[in-house]
Amino acid sequence: MEEQQGEQGRKAERPRKKPRKVSPRYLENAALHYLKRYAATESQLKRVLMRRVDRSLKEHGGERTEALGWVDELVAKLRRGGLINDEAYAGMKAHSLRNSGRSARVIAQKLRLKGVSADVVAKKLADATAELSEEEAAKIWARKKRLGPFRTNTKTREENRQRDLAALARAGFSFAIAKKIIDSAG
C-alpha cells in the first residue's frame, strides 16, 4: 500500500510538459482533435484554442493579436466546412436536456453559457418544448430524483412535500407545475 502511494506521489511531482510553439497548423490540429472528441460551439472552441495560445505565448513569447487572428480564421474555416454549427449543437443539446427532464430555464442558461446566441436559443428551445412540454419534463425530473409521487416510501411523502417543491423550483420549474407534479398520484 505504501509503495503505491509512493508511486502516486512521484507521478504528482513530474514536471508539466512544455507547450508547443503556437502556429496556424498547430491550432488546426488541436481544433480537429478537440472536435473529434466533443461537440462544441464556436465560442467554446475559441476558448479552448486561446488557452493553448496563452500557455504557448507565456512559454515562448510572441504576439497575442497574431494568434487571435489565426484562431478567428480557423473558426471561420471550420464553420464554412460544417465542423462547427451552433444551431445544430443547440438543437441537439436542447432536445437532450429536455428529454432528461430539464426545465426551459436551465436549458436556456446552459446554451447561453456555451456561447449560443439568444435567438438560436429561443428557436431551439421552442422546438424542444413542442416535443415535450414543461410539465412532462418536470414529471421526468421528479421520477429521476424520486420526488413526490415517485418516492419509494409513500409514508414520508407528506413530510417531504416542501422539500420536493423546493427541489423542482431549483431545477427551474414554476411553482404551479411543481405543485401539480408533487401533488399528483404519479
Automatic annotation (TrEMBL):
Domain (RecX second three-helical): residue spans on this chain: 85-123
Subcellular location field: Cytoplasm
Pfam families (UniProt xref): RecX_HTH2
GO process terms (BP): regulation of DNA repair
InterPro entries: RecX_HTH_2nd, Regulatory_RecX, WH-like_DNA-bd_sf
Disordered: annotated span: 1-25
Main location: cytoplasm
Keyword Repeat: no
Alphabetically ordered keywords of this record: Cytoplasm
Domain of life where this protein originates: Bacteria
Residue stretches of biased makeup (Basic residues): 13-23
HAMAP family assigned to the protein according to its UniProt record, in alphabetical order: RecX
Similarity remark: Belongs to the RecX family.
General function of this protein: Modulates RecA activity.
Protein name, UniProt field: Regulatory protein RecX
Protein species of origin: Archangium violaceum Cb vi76
